[in-house]
Design goal:
The complex is a heterodimer of chains A (about 220) and B (about 210).
Chain A lengths: L9 H5 L8 E5 L9 H10 L4 E4 L5 E4 L4 H21 L2 E4 L5 E2 L5 E2 L3 E5 H5 L3 H4 L9 E5 L6 H13 L4 E6 L4 E5 L6 E4 L3 E3 L8 E3 L9
Parallel strand pairs in A: 8-9
Antiparallel strand pairs in A: 2-3, 4-7, 5-6, 7-8, 9-10, 10-11, 12-13
Chain B lengths: L21 E5 L9 H10 L4 E4 L5 E4 L4 H21 L2 E4 L5 E2 L5 E2 L3 E5 H5 L16 E5 L6 H13 L4 E6 L4 E5 L6 E4 L3 E3 L8 E3 L6
Parallel strand pairs in B: 8-9
Antiparallel strand pairs in B: 2-3, 4-7, 5-6, 7-8, 9-10, 10-11, 12-13
The chains are: A alpha+beta (about 220), B alpha+beta (about 210).
C-alpha cells in the first residue's frame, strides 16, 4: 500500500493559531523587509521553494520560483558551463540555488557561477558551511521577464564590488549580453552567438543558442 | 537534415510585468524589520493576517485567532461596544483596528475604546490609516500560543504611552491582570466581572463566556 507523506512536520502541523505560530506572509515586490544573517538562514530553511537573497543593508529579497522558460534557459547555461568544467577540471561550477556570503554581508545566488579549484578547496570548514563565505570568480545573471534591467545591473554591480572577475548579464528579452569586468566599462553585445570565457574560464565559450535566443 | 530555428522578436523591455507577491513562510523565531510605509503595504497585501510593528521596526505576524479565541474576542468586544453605544462617550474598536503609538509602534489591541473628543481632534484623514492616537482603554485576550511575557510587555508599553486602563485576560488560567498608570499591575484570580472604573464609567464586563 502506498504511503502518503506530507512536507509539513508534525510540530509545525500541531502548532496552535495565534501570535506565536508560523505564518504565511504575502510579500509584495520591494517589500522593504529586513532580517539579520541568522534569521535569513532560518527563513531559507523554511522556504525551500523560494529564492531568497540578502542585501548588504539587511534587506530581504524574495523571489518566486523561476518561470518555466527561464528555468529551461538556466538549465542550458548551467549544463554548458558544467560540461566545460568537467573536462577542464580547473574549478567548481554552481547552479542557481547556491548562495554565497559576500564580504559586504550580502547573500546572493547567481543564476550560474564558478570558483577556481584552489580557492574553493582552501575554504575553512567554518567559511564553507551554509552560504559559503566566498565570492565566485565568475557569475551569470539570466534576466527573466519579472526582473527589471536596473535590478539585474545592480546585482552585477554588487558582484563586481565584492570581487567577481567576470560577470555576464544575459537578457533574452533584448537579445543582448552585458559583459562586466572589474575596472572596465560594461561591454554590450547584441545577438552574439557565443561568448568567450576569457582568462577567467580558459578555453570556455558559451554557446548562447537556446539561452539568448529561443532555438536550441 | 534541415534544422529549424525559431527566433521570436524580442519582447520590449517596458513589458516587464510586476512580479506577483511571493508567499513567505515566517517561522516564529525569525524577526523581520519593516519601515512604517512598507508596513502599510504589507498589511494591505495580508488582509487575513494580524500584523503589528514594534517601535524598532520588528514585524509581529499573527495568524487569525483560533475559533474559540475569536468567539471570546467578540464576546468581549460586543459588551464594550454595547456600553460605548449606550453612553455615547466614545467609540469602541475591534482587533483589526491599528493604532500608531508615539514610539512608532503599530498595535492592534483585541478591543479598545477612545473618547469622542480625542477622536474628533484627529487631523482629517488620520483615521483612514493607523491613526496616531493612543486608546484610552485596551484589552488583550491571551490565546494558547501567546507567551505571557510578551503580552505583559505589550500592556506595560500601552500604559507608558498613555492608555489609562488595560486588561490582560487569560481565559485558560482564569486570571485577569489590570494595568493602570503609575501603579503595579493587579492580578485577579477567577473574577466573574470587571469594573470599567473611571475610564469606562458605568461599564461592567461579564466574564462568564470569556474566562473558563
Amino acid at each position: 500500500m502506498a504511503t502518503v507523506t506530507t512536507r509539513r512536520g508534525k510540530a509545525e502541523a500541531d502548532r496552535p493559531a495565534g501570535r506565536d505560530a508560523a505564518v504565511s506572509l504575502l510579500v509584495p515586490p520591494d517589500a522593504g523587509l529586513r532580517v539579520d544573517a541568522e534569521g535569513f538562514e532560518r527563513l531559507c530553511a523554511a522556504n525551500r521553494d523560494l529564492r531568497l537573497e540578502l542585501k548588504a543593508d539587511g534587506t530581504l529579497v524574495v523571489m518566486s520560483p523561476a518561470s518555466s522558460d527561464s528555468g529551461r534557459r538556466n538549465a542550458l547555461l548551467t549544463t554548458r558551463l558544467t560540461i566545460w568544467n568537467e573536462a577542464a577540471r580547473l574549478g567548481y561550477s554552481f547552479d542557481s540555488s547556491s548562495g554565497f556570503t559576500f564580504p559586504d554581508g550580502s547573500v546572493m545566488a547567481p543564476d550560474a557561477s564558478w570558483i577556481l579549484a584552489e580557492r574553493w578547496r582552501g575554504l575553512s570548514p567554518e567559511d564553507g558551511r551554509g552560504f559559503a563565505r566566498i565570492v565566485p570568480d565568475f557569475v551569470v545573471e539570466l534576466r527573466s521577464p519579472s526582473d527589471t534591467i536596473a535590478e539585474s545591473r545592480e546585482k552585477m554591480r554588487v558582484y563586481l564590488a565584492n570581487g567577481v572577475r567576470l560577470g555576464w548579464l544575459i537578457d533574452p528579452m533584448t537579445r543582448t549580453v552585458e559583459i562586466h569586468r572589474p575596472g572596465r566599462e560594461v561591454e554590450t553585445l547584441t545577438r552574439p552567438g557565443a561568448i568567450p570565457g576569457e582568462d577567467v574560464l580558459p578555453g570556455f565559450t558559451l554557446d548562447l543558442s537556446g539561452i539568448l535566443t529561443d532555438d536550441a | 537534415m534541415p534544422t529549424t530555428t525559431i527566433d521570436r522578436e524580442p519582447v520590449p523591455t517596458a513589458a516587464s510585468p510586476e512580479p506577483p507577491d511571493a508567499t513567505l513562510v515566517l517561522p516564529p523565531d525569525v524577526r523581520l524589520y519593516v519601515e512604517p510605509d512598507d508596513f502599510e503595504r504589507l498589511c494591505a497585501a495580508n488582509r487575513d493576517l494580524r500584523l503589528e510593528r514594534e517601535a524598532d521596526g520588528a514585524l509581529i505576524a499573527m495568524t487569525p485567532a483560533s475559533t474559540v479565541s475569536g468567539g471570546r474576542e467578540l464576546t468581549l468586544a460586543a459588551q464594550v461596544w454595547n456600553w460605548a453605544n449606550a453612553t455615547g462617550l466614545g467609540r469602541a474598536f475591534g482587533p483589526s483596528a491599528g493604532f500608531t503609538l508615539p514610539d512608532t509602534a503599530v498595535r492592534a489591541p483585541d478591543v479598545s475604546w477612545i473618547r469622542h473628543e480625542r477622536l474628533d481632534a484627529l487631523p482629517p484623514g488620520e483615521g483612514d490609516r493607523f491613526a496616531r492616537i493612543v486608546p484610552d482603554f485596551v484589552a488583550e485576550l491571551r490565546s494558547p500560543s501567546d507567551r505571557i511575557e510578551k503580552l505583559r510587555a505589550k500592556m506595560a508599553a500601552y500604559i507608558a504611552h498613555g492608555v489609562r486602563l488595560g486588561w490582560l485576560i487569560d481565559p485558560k488560567a482564569g486570571t485577569v491582570e489590570i494595568y493602570r498608570p503609575g501603579r503595579e499591575a493587579e492580578t485577579l484570580t477567577g473574577p466573574k466581572e470587571l469594573s470599567g472604573e473611571d475610564v469606562l464609567p458605568g461599564f461592567t464586563l461579564d466574564l462568564t463566556d470569556i474566562v473558563n
